[in-house]
Amino acid sequence: MGFQRDMLCVVGVLLVMCVTLGSAGDIVHQDDVTPSKKGCDNNFVLFTGEVVLVHRGNCSFTKKANIAEAFNAIAILIINNRTELFKMVCEHNETDLDIKIPTVMLPQDAGMNLKNQLEKNSTVSVQLYSPLRPLVDIAEVFLWLMAVGTILCASYWSAWSAREAAIEQDKLLKDGSDEVLNLEDVGSSGSVDISTTAAILFVVIASCFLVMLYKLMSTWFIEVLVVLFCIGGVEGLQTCLVALFSCFRWFEHAGQSFVKVPIFGAISYLTLAISPFCIAFAVVWAVKRQLSFAWIGQDILGIALIITVLQIVHVPNLKVGTVLLGCAFFYDIFWVFVSKWWFHESVMIVVARGDKSGEDGIPMLLKIPRMFDPWGGYSVIGFGDIILPGLLVAFSLRYDWLSKKSLRTGYFVWAMTAYGLGLLITYVALNLMDGHGQPALLYIVPFTLGTFLTLGKKRGDLHILWTRGEPERHCPHIRLQPSQ
User: Fold this and answer.
1) What's the rounded mean pLDDT across residues 63-70?
2) Are residues 406 and 284 in the same domain?
3) Lower Cβ count inside 10 Å, N or C end of the chain?
4) Shared-domain flag, residues 343 and 438
């Protein structure tokens, strides 16, 4: 029923429809395009035999069409507020579907071009049609590969760092075998473990931040987010490049030689050499982000930031991972679906699309243009849909390496496969629920977390995974001091 209702609402979706404007007395009229009048007021003059041109906004598509039809217009053209096409769908509470005139959505650039020509008193002929979308969005395929590849790289880096820290810990234990060592104080330097309380607070703070984005979304606020994103992107890109170049012998000495810099402290020469490039890259992207290929720079900065976060922030055990992903699961559902009851629109979708911020939208997204889709636009995925499940996937590989499990007997392959399938199902659902956004964590969390819990229970490792998060390590070389 939902699909049929959407089809009925998309009155303008016709294979071929020709409308001649400006000839034989059929003149395109446009209403006052101030925010208060976008085809939503019942104060029109009669438009008998004419086509009405209005801007999107202020009321639903069906109301615009009903008003135009009531004043005897033969068609209504709606100019979108973005350069991409948008499929017009009904809200759930709209039942008035008896629209008998063609109602067509135009991209912003095409609509404004038409408006400018009419303002010059030109005679304009327009052929309107609804281009068919490809069955498979190639951009979504590449976006899936980017998300999976990002978690894959971050997981191996995190596991390698944890293993190196464990080796260093063993060396310290051997060197200090005559003393009682506190094992918990000897850990992986530079990493941060999430607690159960922090996992809950994270979702609460994220909800508050989302509401702030929704309420304050404007051009100036997007500029603030761009600055913050560039700062994080520079740090992430610098960290990734330093780690990458440190693997080569030519840069080994530069990576291990340090110089003291005021405020920042000791910094390696390699970091000093790479930092100007990272800063310049972020600045150029920020200045040129309006260009059609600027998404490449945004994705590079975003991927570097995600990998750095997954390498630094750790889920210490399955208990914390369950709390974090469980809260994120309900967070995504609430702000995509339930928020409509209070805000009359999906807060998450409005923020993700950047409906109130012009063409830019928020930068905390990985995106790829729909290159073979005549409707245009971008396929996007939020950082949270990669970072949150990525924390659990990275934890699985750290556990496998520390417990010396193979890929076949470990948990990483299963967790990685579960994430890939969950994300794939998300895109399938997105295409089936045509015109309605879907919360990715609704599908990803049950796949990843459910697979981990089920497999851990079956193999008898659930208690260790739930509490310790790493295998027990026997230290027979530690000599306890006898009590006096």
Assistant:
1) 83
2) yes
3) C
4) yes
Let me know: does 55 contact 78? Beta carbons within 8 Å.
yes
| pLDDT over 70 (residue 311) | yes
Q: What is the pTM for the complete model shown?
A: 0.77
Token pair, residue 309, equals 């976060």
- How many domains are contained in the chain? 2
User: 191 and 240 in one domain?
Assistant: yes
Share of the chain above pLDDT 90, in %: 33
The partner residues of 17 in beta bridges, in order of sequence, read: 128
Mean pLDDT of 310-321: 93
Tokens of 124: 């304009």
Q: Which of 128, 157, 191 is the last residue of a domain?
A: 128
Contact 379, 363 (CB under 8 A): no
Written in H, E and C, the secondary structure of 330-384 is: HHHHHHHHHHHHHHCCCHHHHHHHCCCCCCCCCCCEEEEECCCCCCCCEEEEECH
Is there a single domain that holds both residue 116 and residue 144? no
445 domain-assigned: yes
Dist. CA 260–CA 432, nearest whole Å:
57
Neighbour-count burial of 86, counting CB atoms closer than 10 A to its CB (0-12 exposed, 13-18 middle, 19+ buried)? buried
Strands 365-369 and 125-128: unpaired
Out of 128, 161, 185, pick the residue that ends a domain: 128
Q: At 31, is the secondary structure helix, strand, or coil?
A: coil
Query: Does residue 332 carry a catalytic annotation?
Result: yes
Cβ within 8 Å of residue 72, ≥6 positions away: 46, 47, 48, 49
Tell whether 149 and 109 lie within a shared domain: no
Please tell me which residue in 6, 137, 299, 385 is annotated as part of the active site.
Answer: 385
Q: Is residue 104 part of a domain?
A: yes
Coil, strand or helix at 438:
coil
Same domain, 360 and 285: yes
Q: Is 410 helix (H, G, I), strand (E, B) or coil?
A: coil
CATH label of the domain that carries residue 88: 3.50.30.30
Q: What angle do CA 433, 146, 417 make, to 5 degrees?
A: 75
Split at pLDDT 50, 70, 90, the class of 21 is: very low
- State which amino acid sits at residue 299: D
Task: Establish if 375 belongs to a structural domain.
Answer: yes
Residue 377 lies in a domain: yes
Distance of CA 219 to the CA centre of its chain: 20
Catalytic residue among 6, 31, 299, 332: 332
- 124 CB burial (10 A radius; 0-12, 13-18, 19+): middle
Question: Are 184 and 93 within one domain?
Answer: no
Q: Are 375 and 131 in contact (CB under 8 A)?
A: yes
DSSP state of 74: S
Which range of residues forms the domain containing residue 75? 2-128
Contact (Cβ atoms closer than 8 angstroms) between residue 73 and residue 101: yes
